[in-house]
Amino acid sequence: MQIELKDLILVPVDFTETSENAIMHAAKLAATMQYSVHLFHVINRESQRELRKKDEDRGDLTERLTALGEKYIAPENVAFEVSTHEGSIYSEIEEALISEGAKLMVMGTHGKKGLQFIFGSDALKVVTKSPVPVIVVQDRDFDEGYNRIVFPVNDFTENRQQVQWAVHIAKIFDSEILVFVQKEADSGMETKMSIVTQQIAESFDEEKIKYRIFESEKVSNYTEQLLEFAAEERADLITIMTDSDAYSPDFPIAGWDEKLMFNPMQIPILCINPKELNQVYFRYVGIL
């Protein structure tokens, strides 16, 4: 079945300050991209306990979601809608992305522990199993948008999909892309990285995207070097591939991905799951 995509951003909301920041990011993104926003709350067991404790019902949650939309989204002249659903957070969010035809999800977290607390034990799967890219934000403000994008290139970069999304965002914000290449000790891998980097550069040249290329100083500790580089360059966004097929189904994100998603600099991370980017999404970003 082919998914009918809409110019829509889905935002899971748990009523914390961090999720409110995600709403602010989504509102400003939507205003720039001319999208609408859907605020979405899942009522799980924990939510039900809180409702009973506060003597509230589902209607109260809908009112709270609407109030958040009026506070953060309406002032940006962006249309929004709200909904609540009962069930598993992981399955309900994935189902909503498909049924609503959202092109993007913005999700708030204040660290790995916080993400798991907010969204339950399947939280990380929300990112890796999402049929659309997910921008993970912490408490950092949106500011002027994503003007400086860090583009990691390492030995498992799936460059075609990552390039297309980086180009898409860069065109929206007139961004400069900072390509950060992993240094390799093995000559064969060094050659591979050189070829991949050249292909990426050619793609950016073809799309008339501003970019610069850097290489890590050391072979080891690439993630730490990447984060230091992003901080020094005052990056607004880091793009990564979150390929759930590369790891155990019970542990969907590698350690380096987690370090980036929950980075202490609170730089937003654009997470792209290559497995889920079918022809519908390739057409959206201009590949097909």
Overview of this protein structure:
Helix content is 44%, strand content 19%. The protein contains 11 helices and 10 strands. The protein is an alpha/beta fold. The chain has helices at residues 17-33, 45-54, 58-73, 89-100, 112-119, 123-128, 159-173, 187-206, 222-232, 255-261, 279-284, and strands at 8-12, 36-43, 80-86, 104-108, 134-137, 148-153, 176-181, 210-215, 237-241, 269-272. The protein has a 10-stranded mixed sheet, sandwiched between helices. The protein folds into 2 domains: 8-137, 3-Layer(aba) Sandwich (Rossmann fold); 148-268 and 280-284, 3-Layer(aba) Sandwich (Rossmann fold), CATH 3.40.50.620.
- The third-level CATH topology of the largest domain is Rossmann fold
Mean pLDDT: 83
CATH architecture of the largest domain: 3-Layer(aba) Sandwich
Give the ordered list of helices and strands. EHEHHEHEHHEEHEHEHEHEH
Indicate the multimeric state: single chain
**CATH superfamily caption of the largest domain:** HUPs
Strand portion: 15-25%
- Helical proportion? 40-55%
Shape: elongated
CATH top level class name of the largest domain = Alpha Beta
Radius of gyration: 19 Å
Give the biggest sheet: 10 strands, mixed
Give the distance, in angstroms, between the N- and C-terminal Cα atoms: 18 Å
Instruction: Flag low-confidence runs.
Output: 115-122, 244-253, 276-288
Structural class: alpha/beta
User: Count the strands?
Assistant: 10
Tell me the number of helical segments per DSSP (H or I, 4 or more residues long). 11
How many discrete domains? 2
Task: Please give the order of strands in the largest beta sheet.
Answer: 3-2-1-4-5-10-9-6-7-8
